[in-house]
Amino acid sequence: MFQIGDKVVHPMHGAGIIDDIVSERVGPTSQDYYVFKMPVGGLVLKIPTAKSKMVGLRDVVDTGEISQLLEAIPALASEMNSNWNHRYRENMERIKSGNLYEVARVIKGLKGREKEKGLSTGERKMLHTAKQILLSELVLVTGMDYSYFEEQINMAMVGG
């Protein structure tokens, strides 16, 4: 169970902080919720505490893991299915996994495809979402500037 002030990651929204734990009545039963607040963008979510594992809520990585990720990005495989529907589904599953390496693989693959053939509106949105998810965690863990990590990610992506 998470506590108020814990830094956590929601797989589809990125990193944030448990701002509060509230109990709300829904019909005859009462349920506890984490109030999840994202520092960037100000998104606030209520996530049922009992379903937080199912949703994929997890602790943020440590700074050592961030260094390892940035070093690993150039070597990440980023092959993409040529069928748009399959590619979109595979990428969505990677993002939903909550695994930073999988999210980085989506970014790398979509950036490569963007250079070669361009992206559809849906894939452009997916690329933006994946970058936000990855960057939000890097920034929250280190306290460093967003633009610094954006540059680091872009350099790592072309390194492979």
Topology record:
Blueprint: E1 7-10, E2 14-26, E3 29-37, E4 44-48, H1 52-55, E5 58-59, H2 63-72, H3 84-96, H4 100-116, H5 121-142, H6 146-158
Would you mind describing this structure in some detail?
This protein is an alpha+beta fold and about 160 residues long. Helices cover about 50% and strands about 20% of the residues. It has 6 helices and 5 strands; from the N terminus they run ββββαβααααα. It has a 5-stranded antiparallel sheet with strand order 4-3-2-1-5. A hairpin with a 6-residue loop joins strand 3 and strand 4. Helix 3 runs parallel beside helix 5 and helix 4 packs across helix 5 (about 120-140). It is globular, with a radius of gyration of 17 Å. About 25% of the residues are buried.
For the structure shown, list the relevant keywords.
5 strands; five-stranded antiparallel sheet; single chain; alpha+beta; 49% helix; 160 residues
Quick recap:
The longest helix is centred in the C-terminal third of the chain and has 22 residues, at 121-142. The protein contains six helices and five strands; from the N terminus they run ββββαβααααα. It has helices spanning 52-55, 63-72, 84-96, 100-116, 121-142, 146-158; strands spanning 7-10, 14-26, 29-37, 44-48, 58-59.
Proportion of β residues? 15-25%
How many alpha or pi helices? 6
Shape: globular
N-to-C terminal Cα separation, in Å? 39 Å
> Which structural class best describes the helix and strand composition?
alpha+beta
Helix and strand sequence: EEEEHEHHHHH
Assign a percent range to the helix content. Answer: 40-55%
Instruction: Give the mean pLDDT.
Output: 91
Q: How large is the radius of gyration?
A: 17 Å
Largest sheet: 5 strands, antiparallel
Question: Total number of β-strand segments?
Answer: 5
Widest sheet: strand ordering: 4-3-2-1-5
Enumerate the spans where pLDDT stays under 50 for 5 or more consecutive residues.
Answer: none
Looking at how many chains there are and whether they match, the oligomeric state comes to single chain
